[in-house]
Amino acid sequence: MELQELREKVELGNFKEAIEIVEKYGETKCIEATGELIVHLMETDHPRFRNAIAIALSDMGAQEAVEPLMELLEDPKTVGNRGSLLYALESFDCSKHAQKLVQFMCEGNFEVSRQSYLVLQACKDKISMHEREWCIGRLQQAIDELEDKEQAAFLSEAIDELFGE
């Protein structure tokens, strides 16, 4: 597959075909496309295209996508479209981003909160003791401040599941 074809589809605004190309890169684990996909990931304002790229990078096992994905999660343009970005992170070691992920658990909507939990679940054994202590403190603070009993119960269970001994 030619990266040039992907560039052309994007330039023409033909995102349906661009997504099909990206999905093929993911299916075939075309590592050579990683750099180009990360560029498109960061530049696009098209949520479905961005999500397709994130999933393809995950399917490819492109660990270098973690930093750009984490950066995008904090970008206002991704509000309301963060679930797939977090889903893509599940297959990577995100332990050094535990604090940000806990913030998303505490402050994100239902999908973002639960998906952040799943990302942390996948890397919980690699989170440093210092990070674990911070995360527990932040979760406890959120529990104390929450009026939503269901969310508070979820965060309480998360402390036990993610950081319990």
Describe it for me?
Helix 7 runs parallel beside helix 9 (129-145) and helix 9 packs antiparallel against helix 10 (149-163). The chain is mainly alpha-helical and 165 residues long. It folds into two domains: 1-92, Leucine-rich Repeat Variant, CATH 1.25.10; 95-165. The mean pLDDT is 95. It starts with a helix and ends with a helix. The chain contains ten helices and no strands.
Summed up:
With 165 residues, this protein is mainly α.
Topology (elements, then pairings):
Layout lengths: L2 H9 L3 H14 L5 H10 L3 H14 L5 H8 L9 H7 L8 H10 L2 H14 L5 H17 L3 H15 L2
Helix pairs in contact: 1-2, 2-4, 3-4, 4-6, 5-6, 6-8, 7-8, 7-9, 9-10
